[in-house]
Amino acid sequence: MSEVAQRADFTKIRYAQVWEDAAILLEALQVQPGDVCVSIASAGDNALALLTGDPAQVIALDLNPSQLACLELRVAALQELAREEFLELLGSRQSTKRETYYRRCRKLLGQEARDFWDAHLPWVEAGIGGAGKFERYFAVFREQILPWVHSRRTIEALLEPRSREERETFYERTWNTVRWRWMFRMFFSRQVMGWLGRSAAQFRYVEGRVGDRILERVRHALVELDPTQNPWLHWILLGEHRAALPVAWQAGNWEKIRGNVERLSWRTQSLEDFLEETSEKSLSKFNLSDIFEYMSEENTLALLEKLCRVSRQGARLAYWNMLVPRNRPDALASKLVSLDELGGKLHGQDRAFFYSRFVVEEVL
């Protein structure tokens, strides 16, 4: 059995959006026509983003049927709704028509996904992008914690266009107060994140102070990167995306994904079990999310060995480390090469700023 399945609760939506930057994922994987891609599904955003590269197939896997219900509703929306209507359904835009949009999509859903969303219509009415445990965690932060630290005017000012030098000045003089640092370390501590946000199982192999490590990455996102272009920052602070959208929902990609959506399939299955039944040298690109966050070093090695077996020469793996350092062990040096320079460059561009490392590896 997968170690992930043993450690985490997969009975509810954990992530109603994908909190990983598809922009760096696509640059890392370089999806091409003919590629067969495997993606951890989560809410489906990045599995769909892979379709912009015209692959032959994208296979999305998740142990949680609720996550696949999120993906299936997105696929139905691609087929039934206009892009602006979908953005309202997601919650990126304000709307009073979300249930109407859902009713139009409903006929395209399978029975399990239809039953799931029928039982959670308040989530639909509030915007499906806010329905996960992780998003509710940020809603608590936005609605109950942040107002004690910064005014609405200061929050809006953070999202105004500035040069890099101006962003640093604003951060140091206005944003980075003693109260901000204290609140952040408390709310993003191991204990609070495990209780309200992520799965407690994800902290099994974590060492050190979680809040301090994430706070360093927040500074990077607010100073080195442009907050006006950061959809995750907008959602955390405002509860909507406005004009800063994840890759899959940007105007130039919507029609491309819509045209290729029939190349996407999904299944409720662990990656380990899927690989056991997959032929050698049949797969070429892998979006592995942060799957190794749950795994011991021994199980990481075992999974990477299975991935190498089913991979074509030149296949690429991409995944994130948040708090647990995982990458190709020396025992696999003859089969898998770490593209550290590329991973490091892309990590510096990562707008989903929680992660400590972005790993890119290539099968020899």
Task: Walk me through what this model shows.
- It is built from 19 helices and seven strands.
- It is α/β, with parallel strands linked by helices and 364 residues long.
- A seven-stranded mixed sheet has the order 3-2-1-4-5-7-6.
- Strand 1, helix 3 (45-49) and strand 2 (57-62) form a beta-alpha-beta unit.
- Helix 5 (83-90) crosses helix 6.
- The model is unreliable at 197-208 (pLDDT under 50).
Mean pLDDT: 92
The portion of residues assigned to helices is: 40-55%
What is the chains' assembly state? single chain
- The number of strands is 7
List the strand order in the largest sheet. Answer: 3-2-1-4-5-7-6
Which fold name is given in CATH as the topology of the largest domain? Rossmann fold
The best one-word shape is globular
The CATH superfamily title of the largest domain: Vaccinia Virus protein VP39
Distance between the termini: 28 Å
What is the compact description of this entry?
By secondary structure, this protein is an alpha/beta fold.
